[in-house]
Structures are given as structure tokens and as C-alpha cells.
Automatic annotation (TrEMBL):
Positions of the CBS domain: 273-328
EC number(s) on file: 7.3.2.6
Annotated function: Part of the ABC transporter complex WtpABC involved in molybdate/tungstate import. Responsible for energy coupling to the transport system.
One GO cellular component, as annotated: plasma membrane
Organism listed in the record: Haloterrigena turkmenica (strain ATCC 51198 / DSM 5511 / JCM 9101 / NCIMB 13204 / VKM B-1734 / 4k) (Halococcus turkmenicus)
Compartment annotation: Cell membrane
Keywords for the protein's UniProt record, in alphabetical order: ATP-binding, CBS domain, Molybdenum, Nucleotide-binding, Plasmid, Transport
Recorded catalytic activity of this chain's protein: tungstate(in) + ATP + H2O = tungstate(out) + ADP + phosphate + H(+)
Family membership: Belongs to the ABC transporter superfamily. Sulfate/tungstate importer (TC 3.A.1.6) family.
Annotated protein name in UniProt: Molybdate/tungstate import ATP-binding protein WtpC
Amino acid sequence: MIEFDNVKKTYADSTVAIENVSFEVAEGTTTVLVGPSGCGKTTTMKLVNRLEDPTEGTVYYDGTDTQAIDVTELRRDIGYVIQEIGLFNHMTVGENVATVPKLKGWDADRIDDRVDELLELMALPPTKYRDQYPRELSGGQRQRVGVARALAADPDVLLMDEPFGALDPITRADLQDEFLEIQAEINTTILFVTHSIDEALKMGDKIAIFDVGELVQYDTPRNILEDPNSEFVRDFVGDDVTLKKLSLINVEEIMQSPDTNDTAANHVEQTVMTSGGEIMHQLDPDDSLKSALSMFVESDVQSLPVVRDGGIIGIVDQDDVFDLYNGD
């Protein structure tokens, strides 16, 4: 869907922003560009929608050199979300989301339907939020509107430049989770910029790590953790590699059936009984083992139920999680 072929970008003052950058982004996947400040990750992303143009090499969009595509049409076909959000304060939420479809000449009914569809997808009920103004929303709500606006014309590609960077940690984590659920539904091709390796590991199907304008490793999150190709990548990933690996494994991957583990099932039953018949501590099948580890430490129970739609579908035993944490 997107391909960089030996791309170099040099600015007018002779500063080399990136050099010899080559990689491909597969359709329907999320690629995260990550690295320290000034490494070239944002410049790389801006080459896709021609906010910057390459000095050498070629950027391809769906097989076509971006230099051969009308820049206005290219930008209208690519969604763009930035940290500062950039909503139009004099427009309502609905008018903000409708901006690009109007520019593309959609009819009014189609626009209205798309606005309502996206606000629902972003957990912003249209009847409540469509006619509100950005100043009436929280930071997290404004960012949701920004994502909805970027998706409004159903783009094949979505560029996201530090989209959650200005939010508090709790809101940021919540929006990350929500966006992963949305991406599972829409399967848009996404290029996502962040300075956080933890965010990159969580959000990316693949990760491109940059350092001083060079792409130093392009790989899956698991491979980057298990096989960093340089001292820089190893240092950038950090020391808590085992904990980061647990963040990549879902509870569903190791849970056992309640019917096959009587001991764990008894532990869960005792937990339920001592809490007055309610499950006080439970896991979602999509929760990471890092979350499970935290819950075990906090709750001091031996086993935790995995719950979907109000029913127990599996059990995770504390020993299994700690064995993985300890590398057994």
C-alpha cells in the first residue's frame, strides 16, 4: 500500500532529515514509526501526503509515485490526525467530521449518515455530541472527534502523528485500547508516529525504529524485543523486556477451560463466594498478560476468571503467568 524506496530528504539548510530509507507498509496493517526527537520519524510520515517531498528516492502510494498524484486529491484521500487535533472551533462536532466529505462533493444525506456512523464508532452518541462545539469537550473527546474527521471520507490510509501524546496517561491508555478495537473493524492502513516504545509495541503490527535519520530496524514487536539488531535498539527498548513481552500476549492465548482445571475452577469459585456472589476480579480475553500479572499482584488470588458477555469462558492460573514472567 505504501512503499519507501531508498528515500532521502535534505532541507534547504543542508540538514539531512532521513537517508536511505526503504520499507513497505502492507494494506490493512499499522506500522509505527518510533525513535528519539529529531530522528526523522515525522518527516518520513509527512512524505506520504506530500507535506514534505523527497530529495532522492521514491514514495509509492498504492503502486503510484506520490509525485505523480495531484497533491490536493492525495491529501483528501489520506486521513491525518495530529497531536494538537486541529479542530475548527467555530464549527460543531458534526461540521468538523463532515469537512472532507463536503470537499469531495458527497451529498448531504450520505454525509449525515457517515457523521453519525463515526460518532457512534467513537463512543460519542450523535444525539448528544453532533451539535456541540470543541470547547465543550474534554481532551479525550476532542481527540476522538479528530480521529472521526480523519476517517470521514473512508480513506485507504490514515496518518497519525503523536495522536495521544497530549493526553493524560489514563485517557491515553483508554484511547489506545479503543482505537485498537476500531482498527480491528475497519482495517485501515495506518502510519503512526510516537516517541514511546511502549506505545509502539502496543499499537503496531510492525515497528520502524529510527535514529539520526536512519531506519535502524523494521520488524514485528516480538522480533524487536527478542532480537534487537543493534546496541541502540537494545537500549531504546529498555531493560524490562520480559514485561514488555507479556504485553504482547493476550489472556485468551494461555487460558484454560474451567472444565479441564478443577483446582483453578475451585479457586475462582471461592473468590466468587467470598465476594458475595459477584466476581470481584476478572479478565477480558483481550487483556494482556501484563495486565493479568498486575491483577494477580493486586488481588492476591491464585486464579482469575476470563469473562465475555457476562459468562466465564476460561481460567488463568497465577503460576502460568509467573512462569512466563520468569522465563520458565
